[in-house]
Amino acid sequence: xxxxxxxxxxxxxxxxxxxxxxxxxxxxxxxxAPDGVAYSVEIMVDPVEHSGARWSAYxxxxxxRRVGASGPEGHLETDYLATADTESGARAVLGALSLDEVxxxxxxxxxxxxxxxxxxWDVMRDEGDDA
Length: 131
Fold this sequence. Notes:
By secondary structure, the protein is of the alpha+beta class. It is 31% helix and 28% strand.
């Protein structure tokens, strides 16, 4: 099924935040990571008894395939980043993160799994651009 373009609705939130971007654009944001791969992000919430709070939230980054048929190829997860008494409360805390903060979490995760280097074909392409 081909994608569809929906015009942004800026009345729905601040697109500079994770929750606002999803509301304005009707889809999750995507980022390029240090490994040269694209990742999209979702807020995940689990029912967890933690310090008196009943819900904890974390970021799930879906890694997208670079070669071949499009589709997910893996994922990375943060630790719990927020806790609240309600599911919507935990989700709101992460939804208020700036996209810069979300991208910083992604870069830290990619580097932690040894993905800080770009693939050889990206480096070769860039070197070929100088010629």
